Structures are given as structure tokens and as C-alpha cells.
């Protein structure tokens, strides 16, 4: 048996199924209330989950690959993930908070200060999921570049592949800038000596002097170094290009296997990507994504999935596998995939709060009975929870 697994939940609106709002016990207005997010994250924290992720995008949700679909029967619109995380942080004590932001259309200086602030506000529990924005609709909201429309039938077209490669290269640059800015203040840069009148040691603030293909940033940051030194960076990856991005720039990677054999193959590919990029940081924590519909019996879960699909007008498919069954069955599946090599799971509740409470109140106890999940929080930061050391400051090391 491998070590106990890491467990996260991905929160989005009223759930990951497009018809979730039709069956949810919560009112359709709930996702626009801060109390809703506090309730969900509080539920996850009571079960001692490692972290929650908060979805975000620069365009409205759509069933199309790019552009609005004109539908009025599905939830559209979100609150800003970083602001939601900042609102939740003072209401929680242990759970990691990982908002999503676009790195294609957001300046890394702004992201660095926002996530560093979240780490200070939360006492060292911040993470960040940089997201590549490949859709023309997102680009048109910002107006600084034009991205060609994505054709679902031609995703392997050389021009599309070049675009995706460039977007991930740009994302890599953005993460480099953000990480350098987090290090631009040494840990003891703030003196705060009232008698001498010295608040800061200017020699311990550093210019990052980054110049790349997409960004030129002087630094230093305006926010002191985060409590974790480097907040946890997470990436969602489905193929070789994002695997390489995660291997070079992230701490956690969310992957989307279809079964235990596929999970083992993905872990092998991720480890190969780490070797290719010459990773020197601790190995990526590999968490497998699953959309989950849980009920007392597998039959009841399948019936609920069928009802949701009927309300949506089509069978729900996702980039991640969809599981509909009983908590004990899901616990067995997670154990099998964990044995195949994944370090843990990011579960996407199909309907909120229903499937979240099934995770926290039925699945988690089943995992604990199998010795697969801890009974509580050991204390410390999100990095501590994930078994990641606090990194040394790159500029302090150079100075020394």
C-alpha cells in the first residue's frame, strides 16, 4: 500500500454538470453570494481536504470550443476566483485555496501581488493555477491581440499547434516572472525598527530584471515575500506540451486519466517530462481529476446522472472521466488509481452542494477506513500539507 493520498475538490458554480442548477438543493442565485463559497469551503475543511480550486475564465461558459453558444438554460457567469479566495481566507484555518487566473491576458506583476497577498491573508495557504487562454472570445475582451478561432475539426493543424506552443511558452515566462517577484523581497527585508527609523533593508529588496519574448519586468514586488516563500503553483495538463509546462514550472499537476492503466501511463509521461526539462525541485504532486456523482447506491447515482443529462439535452462528457456510483465504489477506484502511481485526486462535484457533502461525509470516511486518508490536519502551510519544502530565496542565495 502506498502512502495516504492527497484529496482536493474543484469548485465551480452549482456544480460541474451543466444541468446542476436544475437539481441542486441550493438556490440558483447561490454562486453570487459570499456565504455560498464560505459554506462550501468550510464543508471541505471539516473533512480535512488538502485544498480547493476555484475555476475562472475571461469569457462566459459555453458548450462550444470557442465563442458563445446562445444557450439560456445553463449557468453563465462567475465571480472572480482570486477575490473569492481572499474573501474565504479569513474564514478558514487549514485548507489550501487555489484560484485560477489567465496568464495569457493578465500581467504577471498583478498576479504575483494578488497571490502573495492571498498567502499573507491566509497564513500560508495560497496556491495558484495559471491558465492558458486559447480562445478568441477571451482575447477580444482584452483587445490587445488577436487569436484565430479554434476549429474543433483541425486541432492538429500545424498553425494551431504553433499557437498552443506559443501560448504555453508565454505562460512559462509569466510563471517565471511571478516566482521571481515572490523572491524579490528577502524574508528579513522588513526591519521595522522604530528607534532607528529603519522600516526596510533596501539591500534585501531585489530587481528581478526579467526580459523575455513576452514580458519585461523590473521589480521588485510591492508585496513582501509570501509566508510560504513560493505559493503552490498548480497546472491542469492533458498532453505532452502542458506536461512539460508543469514539469518546468509547477508544484502540482492535475491530470485526466480514464482508468488505472492510463493513470500509470500518465505518471510515467510526467516523470519523463521532469527528466527532459531537468527538474531540480521536488517531484510534481500528480493529482487525477474525476467528475463525481455520488448516491447511496450505484443505481441511484446512474439514475441521477440520466436525469441531469435529460435536463441538459445531451449526455455530459468532460475532459475528465465521469464517475457515477456509491462512495464505497469510488473509494475502491481511488485506491486502485493510487496504487497505479497518482499521488491523489481532485474531485469535481457534479452537483453542489450535494456531491460535495457526499465526498466529505461518505467518501472520506470510506477512505479513512482503508487507511488512505488522514484523520485531520497536521498543521502548517499548504506546502507542508503537500510535503513540499519551503524554497530558499534565489536572490538571498546569490547575495550570500
From TrEMBL:
The keyword Magnesium does not apply. It holds the Pfam family Bac_luciferase. InterPro entries: Diverse_substr_monoxygenases, Luciferase-like_dom, Luciferase-like_sf, NTA_MOA. Residues 38-305 form the Luciferase-like domain. Gene3D superfamilies: Luciferase-like domain (3.20.20.30). Keywords: Flavoprotein, FMN, Monooxygenase, Oxidoreductase. The keyword Flavoprotein applies. PANTHER family: ALKANESULFONATE MONOOXYGENASE-RELATED, C2H2 FINGER DOMAIN TRANSCRIPTION FACTOR (EUROFUNG)-RELATED. Belongs to the NtaA/SnaA/DszA monooxygenase family. This is LLM class flavin-dependent oxidoreductase. It comes from Micromonospora zhanjiangensis.
Amino acid at each position: 500500500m502506498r502512502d495516504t493520498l492527497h484529496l482536493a475538490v474543484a469548485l465551480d458554480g452549482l456544480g460541474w454538470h451543466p444541468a446542476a442548477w436544475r437539481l441542486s438543493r441550493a438556490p440558483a442565485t447561490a454562486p453570487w453570494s459570499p456565504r455560498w463559497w464560505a459554506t462550501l469551503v468550510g464543508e471541505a475543511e471539516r473533512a480535512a481536504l488538502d485544498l480547493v480550486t476555484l475555476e475562472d475564465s475571461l469569457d462566459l461558459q459555453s458548450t462550444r470550443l470557442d465563442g458563445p453558444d446562445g444557450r439560456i438554460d445553463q449557468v453563465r457567469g462567475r465571480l472572480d476566483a482570486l477575490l473569492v479566495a481572499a474573501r474565504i481566507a479569513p474564514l478558514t484555518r487549514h485548507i489550501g485555496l487555489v484560484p485560477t487566473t489567465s496568464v495569457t491576458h493578465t500581467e504577471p506583476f498583478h498576479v504575483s501581488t494578488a497571490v502573495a497577498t492571498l498567502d499573507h491573508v491566509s497564513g500560508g495557504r495560497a496556491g495558484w493555477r495559471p491558465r492558458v487562454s486559447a480562445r478568441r472570445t477571451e482575447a477580444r475582451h482584452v483587445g490587445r491581440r488577436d487569436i484565430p478561432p479554434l476549429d474543433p475539426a483541425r486541432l492538429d493543424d500545424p498553425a494551431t499547434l504553433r499557437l498552443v506552443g506559443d501560448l504555453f511558452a508565454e505562460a512559462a515566462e509569466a510563471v517565471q516572472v511571478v516566482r521571481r517577484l515572490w523572491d524579490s523581497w528577502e524574508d528579513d527585508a522588513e526591519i521595522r525598527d522604530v528607534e532607528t527609523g529603519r522600516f526596510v533593508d533596501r539591500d534585501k529588496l531585489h530587481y528581478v530584471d526579467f526580459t523575455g519574448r513576452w514580458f519585461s519586468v523590473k521589480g521588485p514586488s510591492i508585496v513582501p515575500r509570501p509566508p510560504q516563500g513560493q505559493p503552490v503553483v498548480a497546472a491542469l495538463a492533458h498532453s505532452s506540451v502542458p506536461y512539460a509546462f508543469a514539469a518546468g514550472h509547477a508544484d502540482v499537476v492535475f491530470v485526466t486519466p480514464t482508468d488505472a492503466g492510463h493513470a500509470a501511463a500518465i505518471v510515467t509521461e510526467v516523470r519523463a517530462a521532469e527528466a527532459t526539462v531537468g527538474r531540480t525541485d521536488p517531484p510534481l504532486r500528480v493529482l487525477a481529476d474525476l467528475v463525481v456523482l455520488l448516491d447511496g447506491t450505484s443505481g441511484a447515482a446512474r439514475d441521477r446522472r440520466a436525469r441531469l443529462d435529460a435536463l441538459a439535452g445531451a449526455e455530459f462528457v468532460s475532459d475528465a472521466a465521469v464517475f457515477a456510483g456509491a462512495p464505497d465504489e469510488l473509494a475502491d477506484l481511488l485506491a486502485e488509481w493510487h496504487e497505479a502511481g497518482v499521488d491523489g485526486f481532485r474531485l469535481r462535484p457534479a452537483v453542489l452542494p450535494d456531491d460535495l457533502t457526499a465526498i466529505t461525509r461518505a467518501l472520506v470516511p470510506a477512505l479513512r477506513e482503508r487507511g488512505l486518508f488522514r484523520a485531520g490536519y497536521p498543521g502548517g502551510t499548504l506546502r507542508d500539507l503537500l510535503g513540499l519544502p519551503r524554497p530558499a530565496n534565489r536572490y538571498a542565495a546569490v547575495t550570500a
